[in-house]
Write a structure and sequence with these properties.
The protein contains six helices and ten strands, in the order βββαββαβαααβαβββ. The chain is of the alpha/beta class. The strands form two sheets. A six-stranded mixed sheet has the order 6-7-8-3-9-10, sandwiched between helices. A four-stranded antiparallel sheet has the order 2-1-4-5. A hairpin with a 2-residue loop joins strand 4 and strand 5. The longest helix is centred in the last third of the chain and has 18 residues. 38% of the residues are buried. It binds adenosine-5'-diphosphate (ADP) and magnesium ion.
Length: 226
């Protein structure tokens, strides 16, 4: 699917003023491509993802999925779009300490009310895709940081999203593990035809991206397009 942010402005309350987190931001991301959003801490990267994920409605501007404006939808319909079409991988992995890698994925399907035999197959297929088939019965404390991040990525794909939104996927990893997670995201994007938008502050990750958008003080600027 195609994601378009069109002239999006987002402000937060800040004392008796408003803080502008996104200042007339526009961005287009296409199917099968990886768009990197880079910028310093506090520049608006996570806010951009939250708007794209329909978790926060912008003050103005439009968020379009395949040309359909999400601003016009009722909250229940926005939630359905999010549940069915959007995969979200947050900065902190939020894995549940008591669950095995496989059950971290199954709990998503269970909450969505999916057929659990179909979900079991999908969980195994995804754990295989992120090279964790052999670790599927391990709990988070029995996994390395890189392995935990791969569980998080697999979990983000359980609902078979078209749009994958990833916030600083390697911030807790050493650089070698970071490179591996990046190449995994790159491969999943291409193989599954995902529209992936990834926030990072690591310049080294940009070579894996098809497009790079820089954000500074809530304003975006496209750096590279291939
Ligand atoms: P980044 O992810 O690039 O670090 P954020 O999008 O988290 O940036 O934040 C952008 C700006 O908005 C920062 O100045 C931050 O302090 C502010 N901000 C983020 N979330 C909130 C919030 N919920 N309420 C008020 N201000 C916020
Ligand atoms: Mg952030």
């Amino acid at each position: 699917m195609t994601l378009q942010l069109d002239d999006v402005t987002l402000t937060y309350p800040d004392g008796d003023q408003r803080l502008t987190a996104l200042d007339h931001v526009s961005l287009t991301a296409e199917r099968g491509t990886l768009t990197a959003v880079v910028g310093p801490s506090g520049s608006g990267k996570s806010s951009l993802l939250a708007v794209a994920a329909t978790l926060i409605a912008p003050d103005s501007g439009r968020v379009l999925l395949d040309g359909r404006d999400l601003a016009g939808l009722r909250p229940a319909d926005t939630a359905a779009v999010r549940r069915q079409q959007i995969g979200i991988i947050f900065q902190s992995s939020n894995l549940l300490a008591s669950l095995t890698a496989r059950d971290q994925l199954l709990v998503v399907a269970h909450m969505a009310g999916d057929d659990m035999s179909v979900a079991s197959e999908r969980a195994d297929e995804l754990l295989d895709a992120v090279a964790l088939a052999a670790q599927r019965d391990r709990r988070p404390h029995q996994l390395s940081g890189g392995q935990r991040q791969r569980v998080t990525i697999a979990r983000g794909l359980m609902n078979q999203p078209s749009l994958l939104l990833v916030d600083e996927p390697t911030s807790a990893l050493d650089s070698q593990r970071g490179v591996e997670v990046l190449s995994l995201l790159r491969r999943l994007t291409t193989d599954r035809g995902l529209t992936t938008v990834m926030v990072t502050h690591n310049q080294e990750h940009l070579q894996s991206a098809d497009r790079v958008t820089e954000i500074v003080d809530g304003r975006t600027r496209q750096l590279v397009s291939s």
